[in-house]
């Protein structure tokens, strides 16, 4: 395997769901370790069987399906098998967990033969004095692409704060720190004006919210990005589900009011001292948010339900053939897990090259095995 073409959820993320699809292949590997849903990502294929009709699976696309996973399982299958599986799964409602490891809860408002992709309506908001937080907000927007609106400057909103925030299913909010050492109103931006007045009237309980903060960890080592902590706490006190906590590894601060437990309460960037790390930090954070289910939205009050977009799917095989194929894959994977399972490395099998990529639990290293069991190590 010449490394996977697209690692849509980086294996280094402590992700609940992992999907890997090798480039130039119709094979798709899904690794599901999610309690409530499976993330399925379809990667653009360059070759296409003549008999296979054109459909949405030939585009790069990430969609969330509400499938209840009852076991931790690895499924390797062809895209056409996968699409048929999902179609039949939705249509028939329940599959035996013994066959491939998950059952599908009844989904309302579906015609048989269609899949509903759920994606949250995300809004990105920021405050800034000298523009750095806006730059990071732009990077976050670029990483989310069409999945997010904005970024919007909190001081230049077109409508009232209340309706603007309430219309989104999930919010990404960012702030710098200017009022060093302050107990409250630490941002030095428009956030300070609304934290304890307008925002207290928001009906956003249950919304998913992720915070990012800008600061200078060298000059303000004792107060690094303090304002992100306040931004976090205001949303948390309104009943929001806070997402996107990050490791403090790689920072040089001495203290910060943004620390919650062993982590920062969101993404912290320092364009003064570590500007070169910012793009990668943003990229990893957005991948983390996706893996945390940020795009699935929250159970927000006052917000519209997650947008449901029916996607037509073509059934290529009968359920019997599907069961057989899945059983085959399942047996094969059980066997590889039995052989290699004790190492703690997680296998990613590529049926095309007949090789397996084994990824360490922390996602930092991997090695490959072929059917002849030869292997080589690489760092990721
Ligand atoms: C007067 C002043 C006070 C600052 N106070 C802090 C601080 O307490 N903590 C911190 O991490 N950074 C502090 N900073 C650094 C800014 O937060 C940092 O430059 C940030 O990137 C500015 O973001 P903005 O351009 O979006 O306003 C301060 C900078 C200045 C000039």
UniProtKB/TrEMBL annotation:
Keywords: Flavoprotein, FMN
Domain Flavodoxin-like: from-to ranges: 122-290
One matching Pfam family: Flavodoxin_1
Cofactor(s) this protein cannot do without: FMN
MF annotations from Gene Ontology: electron transfer activity; FMN binding
Domain of life per record: Eukaryota
Secretion signal, residue range per the UniProt entry: none
Protein known as: Flavodoxin
């Amino acid at each position: 395997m010449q490394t996977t073409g697209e690692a849509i959820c980086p294996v280094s993320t402590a992700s609940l769901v992992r999907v890997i699809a090798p480039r130039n292949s119709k094979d798709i590997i899904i690794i599901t370790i999610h309690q409530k849903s499976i993330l399925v990502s379809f990667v653009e294929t360059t070759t296409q069987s003549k008999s296979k009709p054109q459909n949405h699976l030939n585009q790069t696309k990430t969609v969330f399906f509400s499938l209840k996973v009852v076991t931790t399982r690895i499924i390797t299958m062809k895209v056409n098998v996968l699409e048929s599986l999902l179609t039949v799964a939705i249509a028939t409602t329940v599959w035996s967990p013994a066959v491939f490891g998950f059952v599908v809860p009844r989904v309302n408002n579906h015609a048989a033969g269609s899949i509903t992709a759920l994606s949250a309506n995300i809004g990105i908001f920021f405050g800034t004095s000298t523009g750095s937080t806006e730059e990071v907000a732009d990077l976050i927007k670029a990483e989310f692409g069409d999945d997010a609106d904005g970024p919007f400057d909190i001081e230049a909103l077109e409508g009232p704060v209340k309706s603007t925030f309430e219309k989104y299913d999930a919010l990404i909010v960012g702030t710098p720190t200017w009022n060093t050492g302050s107990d409250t109103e630490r941002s030095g931006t428009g956030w300070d004006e609304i934290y304890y007045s307008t925002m207290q009237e928001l009906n956003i309980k249950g919304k998913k919210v992720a915070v990012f903060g800008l600061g200078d960890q060298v000059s303000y080592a004792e107060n690094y990005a303090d304002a992100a902590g306040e931004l976090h706490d205001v949303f948390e006190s309104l009943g929001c589900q806070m997402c996107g906590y990050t490791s403090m590894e790689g920072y040089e601060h001495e203290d910060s009011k943004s620390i919650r437990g062993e982590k920062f309460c969101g993404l912290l960037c320092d364009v003064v001292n570590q500007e070169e790390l910012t793009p990668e930090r943003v990229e990893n954070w957005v991948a983390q948010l996706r893996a945390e289910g940020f795009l699935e939205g929250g159970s927000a009050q006052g917000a519209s339900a997650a947008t449901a977009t029916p996607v037509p799917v073509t059934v290529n095989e009968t359920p019997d053939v599907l069961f057989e194929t899945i059983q085959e894959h399942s047996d094969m994977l059980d066997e590889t897990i039995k052989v290699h399972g004790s190492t703690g490395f997680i296998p990613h099998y590529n049926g095309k090259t007949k090789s397996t990529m084994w990824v360490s639990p922390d996602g930092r290293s991997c090695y490959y095995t072929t059917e002849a069991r030869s292997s080589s190590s690489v760092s990721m």
